[in-house]
Amino acid sequence: MPRRNARERMLQAAQAVVTRIGAAHMTLDHVSATAGVSKGGLLYHFPTKEALIQALIENYIANFHVAISRELARQPKGTLREIKAHIVAGAKRDAKTRRLGAALLLAAAHDPKLLAPARMEFKRVFRRYDGVGKNSERAAEIALVCDGLHILELLGLMPYDNRRRAKMIRHMLRLVDIYEGDSAKSGGTCDGPSLKA
Amino acid sequence: MPRRNARERMLQAAQAVVTRIGAAHMTLDHVSATAGVSKGGLLYHFPTKEALIQALIENYIANFHVAISRELARQPKGTLREIKAHIVAGAKRDAKTRRLGAALLLAAAHDPKLLAPARMEFKRVFRRYDGVGKNSERAAEIALVCDGLHILELLGLMPYDNRRRAKMIRHMLRLVDIYEGDSAKSGGTCDGPSLKA
DNA sequence: GTCTATATCAAGATAGAC
DNA sequence: GTCTATCTTGATATAGAC
Fold it and tell me: Domains in chain B, ordered, with CATH?
């Protein structure tokens, strides 16, 4: 009987361990104990520790995509509603999820290849932002603000409190709106004025 | 004889190793061999591997400050010249330095405490950006764009080529100018040529 | 096919010799 | 201050039990 659950259970256990003590301190013994299997059993499903972390990262990104889809349904019509959904979904991640993301990001230290999915994700996002409007620097600016916030928060480097953060999120959404409006106007230049708050 | 050089030599060796193969794959054996001492000798100066990495990180940040100071001397007068110097210095780091920074950042996976210096650095930067002007979201926006670019590049997540990147840097400097101009509520002293996209 | 038990090997850390 | 010898832990590899 190929128990589909076993693999899933091990992934969940790994996720729990990583969230609790970080990917760097996660050991195979720890995960297998949490999952209720032997180390060998774990290694049967994930031949190396890296494979396990890789699976966690893919899982994390997939979950994020689900969250974005959920937000997308709530966004009003608009060319860039997908981007806004991205921002809101990112803003809504809870502390536990963020901790998991940070741990996984840092786990890539052992193999830059592990960042490949993330790299693809960024490529996709930047292309998406770039594809709309005429001022691609402005677009990149928005992309960088969003993803900069995202990553700085993951790493715990963002010195904002909740109130400040909420204001910043609103500001970002406004940026998208303005950019969307500018892009829609055929003759409109994208410099300065419309960005003044 | 307390050889001041010994510690320094070991630090240099560690830096070389990290730059070459990454902090995760750096072993004490490797470093001690490169430095020409035994593992025990190395561990006398740096009681743990983490202590060694910590020293490398502090060294890295100190070097970055030196680079900023150098750029500061080249910047024309202006309220936010320090910020522009920061941007330019960040943009100018060579590949080797970037690789080192990335490795050190990722090394923090083993202990979030290692990120403490970086955290302090960001706090300082954001406060500096925040202190000038009235629109603090706008200021934060600039800060996030700069540091977002910085970190995404360190992690190799930035999908830009050199030309695109240069344009983005110029755009960022222009953002600072615009913000400075808005804050001063005067004509805005933009330094012409270097800011054209 | 799925797992347990056990073996191996690398690398961080410690103790004490010099 | 620095080295050698040794301990320990954790990641893999292997041998088979069910």
Answer: 1-47 (1.10.10), 66-195 (no CATH)
